[in-house]
Amino acid sequence: MEIQNGQYQIQNINLVSLCKKYGTPLYVYDTDSMQRQYNRLKAAFSNIDLKINYACKALSNLNVLRLFRDMGAGLDTVSIQEVLLGLKAGFQAKDIIFTPNCVSFDEIKSAISHHVHINIDNISILEQFGHVYGDSIPVCIRFNPHIMAGGNAKISTGHIDSKFGISIHQLRHVERIVKSHNICVTGLHMHTGSDILDIDVFLRGADILLDIAHSFKNLEYIDFGSGFKVGYKPDDVTTDIELLGQRMTERFNRFCQEYGKNLTLMFEPGKYLVSESGFFLASVNVIKQTTATVFAGLDTGLNHLIRPMFYDAYHHIINISNPEANPRIYTVVGNICETDTFGWDRKINEVREGDILCFLNAGAYGFMMASNYNSRLKPAEILIHEGSDYLITRREAFDDLIRNQIPVLFSDDVVA
């Protein structure tokens, strides 16, 4: 996003004009940003056999999936529905990996029926898998490296108390199951968390997983997850992707020499690829001043962007309707019957009722975690691609809210 002639634009499209065209609240995504992030990551690992699997839980709109498919990405999925979305978007089954957690074995079997890669993260499912499929279906195993990493406890997935992965201390148990059922293990996986700044975390995890890899003789790939940190605050420090690429490449190539063949190194970025591409636009309903605070109350709430309330996440907020005004201090809140505060005491260019506020870094886990709380409707999604804007998800209507409800207690005189 850039400002030209006092107007905020994406690919030369004015954001305020988008709000007039499509209404608010509104999610807007910039494909130039997605392509830039993908190409940067790919370039950082240019001296290795790299496979980038987009973690579609971050933003699973079919148009976004097709964009990454066309760039050459694979797909990381965590539910059978995401598998089906990937296939619907045109991904080949061989380019989709299924990495669920605490799902039933029936869901595993369903994914197998679609011929995608299976990644198993608990011993119970691994035993069931081996009993039913033996060596007929190759499998990946997710290990928990017991590394505490991530910007928030809720997005740290590799520590000892995490529900994700099989403990590295259970390696011998895993080996016995693999041997007794003759399971064909072709991949290993880990994911330590999100918003990781220190690249030494990745390197420690790599050392652990590569050490384990010597116990499996038929590997084709090793997946190191993701968690690269993007910048939320102005001048925020982010993961040094280029340095990570250099050091991980050296370590992985050295391992491949020791292992006796070249393997594919995989990452599964989601937030890294789409977070900065997203902008969430909302209208100011009211300016409310109390004895202590000036509130800017919006036509949205935690039902549309829950990350600030759920993760204490910071999203930079700007006034795109009044960009040259003097800044004042506002607490930005929503219209939900909860304390849905997006940001306390933010310095924002003077806000007037009817202005449009823009939340940056809203591409990942914004719309995907939206709900109908308070029986409010979900917003529209817009994609800006090659200088044109496209509606990719319609704004919900009241009929969408009650579409799946079944009236069984209504009397005949109820007015529709």
Report on this structure.
- With 416 residues, this protein is of the alpha/beta class.
- The protein folds into two domains: 2-28 and 275-402, Lyase, Ornithine Decarboxylase, Chain A, domain 1; 60-269, Alanine racemase (TIM Barrel).
- It has helices at 15-22, 31-44, 62-71, 80-88, 105-113, 123-133, 171-181, 199-213, 241-259, 271-274, 307-311, 398-402; strands spanning 2-4, 7-10, 13-14, 26-30, 50-55, 74-77, 96-98, 117-120, 139-144, 166-167, 185-189, 221-223, 264-267, 278-289, 294-298, 317-319, 327-333, 341-349, 356-359, 380-385, 388-393.
- β20 and β21 (388-393) form a beta hairpin.
- α6 runs parallel beside α7 (171-181).
Topology record:
Elements: E1 2-4, E2 7-10, E3 13-14, H1 15-22, E4 26-30, H2 31-44, E5 50-55, H3 62-71, E6 74-77, H4 80-88, E7 96-98, H5 105-113, E8 117-120, H6 123-133, E9 139-144, E10 166-167, H7 171-181, E11 185-189, H8 199-213, E12 221-223, H9 241-259, E13 264-267, H10 271-274, E14 278-289, E15 294-298, H11 307-311, E16 317-319, E17 327-333, E18 341-349, E19 356-359, E20 380-385, E21 388-393, H12 398-402
Parallel strand pairs: 4-20, 5-6, 5-13, 6-7, 7-8, 8-9, 9-10, 9-11, 11-12, 12-13, 15-17
Antiparallel strand pairs: 1-2, 2-3, 4-14, 14-15, 14-19, 16-19, 17-18, 20-21
Helix pairs in contact: 2-3, 2-9, 6-7, 8-9
